[in-house]
Each structure stands twice: as structure tokens, then as C-alpha cells.
């Protein structure tokens, strides 16, 4: 599907939804004309008008101007000023933060056990940056009514931004609970986003949720982007490419400033280039990266994809040049991203120029970085192949306890091989050094068949 067909299909979907909403609005207006004393009709009309305003993206940013959904909600409250549900509705349809908070607090004054009011109040606090108040409000809502989806989704967003161990898994479980209770596209997209961080993209629940989000919210770029990630992790690269292209088309349809769209556009473009590279379309991947480079938007993830695509095309000098640019940005990257990028640089240098080049990359790094599991294996393998240039890395001789058991057994085997190669004499392996080292390692890993 090309861009024009995609836009036409999304516009057709939006017009169908708007037509149904406008039809409902006319019915409510007719009922309101016949029975203006019915407060419920005012509230239902307000909800319908709020839906129309959201779809047309014409909400006013002026806090002084009263929007039509707010006026209709106030009409219902004039008839029933102590109706707690009407106050919650006013808080949900209003775009004025002060009015939203006042309405929800008024609803809680009428009934402190109103879970919807606590949930919406938590959402307001989270958006305004008051995380502790947001957490308390969400906890209160969940304790009153565990079957309400919004507080589960809110707690998921709170946990997702925490760095403590297990926070991402808690976030995933909370968001999954919210999706199971109320499968809204926003919740489903959030589930896919968290699944990408927690390694749960292969989950059938995530697959079903993301595919539903694409069907129910085709105008959201995030739904297509997450769908691309789900397809990519299943090695369905053609579907992933199509999804990323749809995400770019959807971004082009959004009524936001160029600054708002720039960073999502970069992420989607890098994802598209990566899938193109995996699908064997390295030329298209290079073209995608060069477009980002021309606009000055090529980030560190894009540099890795760019270098890999150039290497696959046989443009080795250019690939090494890009990898050097990537190495210059290591100090500005987060630790996890930096170690992953370093492992990529070493692997690329080894495949293009051999072990000497890869070894020189590590030797020229400033300081001692923190190594992840893949990089430990790469360095130990290079250390074994390069006995004349011992890295003497303390992280390898005393590995941290949190490192994977299987990975560290392979690392120690590589170290033993390096000691054997390093002790060679008359073209014969010096096995004594390797055996001595393995005997020491055996005390650390007595059940490891590889070490034995």
C-alpha cells in the first residue's frame, strides 16, 4: 500500500467514525429538545461532543474559552449539582487542568469511594509530574475497584519509568491487566511498548493486542511502529517493513509541529532501515539512513544500522568510517547502549579487517567501560586469538555475579584457550597453562559440562 492509498483508507475510517458520532449527536440534540429537564441527556451529549472534538483535533488551548462539552456537562450539573458521576464527567471532558482537578475533588467530596475519580485524579497528577500523588491515587482506585482498567494502566506507566530491578516486569503485568479489562488502543500500544523493553514481544497476548490496536486506531503511528517490532521479532521482515512505512505515513498526517514529529520519525526510520537490512535490502537501508544523515537526524542506533548495511554492500571503508563516528559517541551514551555499540564495533572491525583491527579498537578506548555479557564473550575470544597483546581486563578475571552462568563459562573457556595459545612453543600448544586455569574455574562452576 503506497502513501496515498494509506491516507485514503485512514481518512475513510475517520470519516466513518465521525459520521457515527455526528449521528449520535443529532439524536442527543433531538432528545434534549424534547426533554431539556433530563440531566443525563446533557451528560451523554457532552461525552459525544468530547469524542467529536478529539477526533477532529480542534480542542481549544485557551483556558478562558469554555468548550461545548464543558458547557453541556455544566448544564447537567445545574440540574443535579450533587451528582458525583456528573462531576467526574466534567473532569474527564475538560481540557483545563484546574477545572479537571476541581471537578474530581468535588466528586470525591461527595463520595470518597468513587474509584473513577481517584483514577482520573491519578492521571492528572502523573501528567503534571507529581508522581507520588499519582501513585497514591492509583493505589486508592485499585483498592476500591480492582476491575477498573485506568489505574492499572497508570501504575504501569509509573513503573515503566523506574530504574529499580523488576520495575519493567511489574509495568508489563500491570499494563497486561489493563488491556484484559478494557482493550483500548492506547492501553494496547502501551503494552507493546513495554513488551519491547521487557523482551515480551513474542507473547501471544502482545501480538493480539497490537494487531487489534492497528485495526482500531490506524491513525496512530505508534500502533504501526509496535506492530513492526512484533513482526520483526518473528522474522517476518516484509510485514515489519510495511508496518514501519505505514507508521511514517501516519506521522505525516498528524497535525503537530515538525519538532514534535522529529524524534518519532527518527525512531521509525531507523526501525525501517534495520528491517530492510535484515530482509536483504541493504541498498534501501542505506538510502533510508542517508536521508536521516542529510537531515542531521541520524542517531547512534541509526549509525549501527548504516554501518551494517554498508558492510553488507561491500563498502568496507565507509562502514569502518561510520563505526569510528559511532565510537566517538560512546561517552555520551547510556551504559547499556554503549556496551552494545562497542560489541557491534568490535564485531564489524573483526569481520572487515581481522582480529588485529578489532583488538586495536578495544585498546584505544578511554578507561575501562562496563562490559555486558555479549561483549565479555567477544573480548575473551579476541584475547584468545591475540596472545601477544593481552588485554588483561579485570572484568574478565573477576566477573560480576550477575553475569549469565552460560556466558561466563564460555568466557572462561576462551580465557583458558588464550592461555594455551600464549604458552605455545615450537608450534605446539602449551596446554598446561590452560588446564591449570580450568581447574581453578571448575571450583566456581562445578556443574559446567563445558568447563569439564
TrEMBL record:
User: Which UniProt keywords are given for this protein, alphabetically ordered?
Assistant: Repeat, TPR repeat
Repeat keyword on record: yes
Q: What is this protein called?
A: Uncharacterized protein
**Gene Ontology terms describing biological process:** RNA catabolic process
A cellular component term, taken from the record's GO annotations: Ski complex
Q: What InterPro entries does the record tag this protein with? A: Ski3/TTC37, TPR-like_helical_dom_sf, TPR_2, TPR_rpt
Sequence ranges of the TPR repeats: 115-148
Q: Which is an annotated Pfam family here? A: TPR_2
Amino acid at each position: 500500500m503506497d502513501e496515498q492509498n494509506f491516507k485514503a483508507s485512514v481518512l475513510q475510517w475517520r470519516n466513518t467514525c465521525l459520521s457515527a458520532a455526528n449521528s449520535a449527536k443529532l439524536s442527543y440534540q433531538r432528545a434534549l429538545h424534547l426533554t431539556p429537564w433530563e440531566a443525563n441527556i446533557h451528560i451523554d451529549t457532552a461525552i459525544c461532543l468530547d469524542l467529536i472534538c478529539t477526533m477532529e483535533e480542534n480542542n481549544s488551548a485557551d483556558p478562558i474559552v469554555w468548550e461545548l462539552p464543558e458547557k453541556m456537562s455544566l448544564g447537567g450539573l445545574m440540574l443535579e449539582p450533587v451528582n458525583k458521576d456528573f462531576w467526574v464527567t466534567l473532569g474527564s471532558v475538560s481540557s483545563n487542568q484546574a477545572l479537571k482537578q476541581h471537578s474530581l475533588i468535588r466528586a470525591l467530596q461527595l463520595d470518597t469511594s468513587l474509584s473513577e475519580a481517584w483514577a482520573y485524579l491519578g492521571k492528572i497528577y502523573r501528567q503534571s509530574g507529581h508522581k507520588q500523588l499519582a501513585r497514591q491515587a492509583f493505589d486508592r482506585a485499585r483498592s476500591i475497584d480492582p476491575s477498573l482498567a485506568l489505574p492499572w494502566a497508570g501504575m504501569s506507566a509509573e513503573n515503566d519509568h523506574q530504574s529499580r530491578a523488576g520495575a519493567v516486569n511489574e509495568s508489563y503485568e500491570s499494563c497486561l491487566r489493563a488491556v484484559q479489562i478494557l482493550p483500548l488502543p492506547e492501553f494496547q500500544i502501551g503494552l507493546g511498548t513495554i513488551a519491547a523493553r521487557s523482551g515480551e514481544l513474542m507473547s501471544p497476548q502482545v501480538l493480539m493486542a497490537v494487531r487489534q490496536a492497528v485495526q482500531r486506531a490506524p491513525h496512530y503511528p505508534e500502533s504501526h511502529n509496535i506492530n513492526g517490532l512484533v513482526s520483526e521479532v518473528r522474522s517476518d521482515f516484509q510485514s515489519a517493513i510495511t508496518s514501519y512505512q505505514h507508521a511514517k505515513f501516519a506521522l505525516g498526517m498528524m497535525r503537530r509541529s515538525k519538532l514534535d514529529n522529529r524524534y518519532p520519525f527518527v525512531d521509525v526510520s531507523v526501525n525501517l532501515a534495520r528491517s530492510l537490512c535484515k530482509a536483504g535490502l541493504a541498498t534501501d537501508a542505506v538510502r533510508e539512513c542517508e536521508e536521516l544523515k542529510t537531515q542531521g537526524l541520524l542517531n547512534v542506533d541509526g549509525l549501527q544500522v548504516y554501518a551494517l548495511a554498508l558492510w553488507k554492500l561491500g563498502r568496507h571503508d565507509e562502514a569502518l568510517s561510520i563505526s569510528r563516528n559511532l565510537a566517538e559517541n560512546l561517552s555520551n551514551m547510556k551504559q547499556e547502549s554503549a556496551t552494545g555499540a562497542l560489541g557491534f564495533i568490535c564485531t564489524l572491525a573483526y569481520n572487515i579487517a581481522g582480529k588485529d583491527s578489532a583488538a586495536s579498537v578495544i585498546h584505544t578506548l578511554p578507561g575501562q567501560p562496563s562490559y555486558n555479557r555479549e561483549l565479555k564473550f567477544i573480548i575473551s575470544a579476541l584475547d584468545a586469538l591475540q596472545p601477544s597483546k593481552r588485554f588483561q581486563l579485570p572484568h574478565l578475571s573477576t566477573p560480576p555475579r550477575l553475569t549469565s552462568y552460560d556466558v561466563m563459562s564460555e568466557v572462561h573457556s576462551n580465557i583458558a584457550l588464550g592461555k594455551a595459545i600464549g604458552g605455545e612453543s615450537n608450534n605446539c600448544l602449551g596446554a598446561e597453562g590452560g588446564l591449570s586455569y580450568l581447574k581453578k574455574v571448575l571450583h566456581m562452576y562445578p556443574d559446567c559440562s563445558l568447563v569439564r
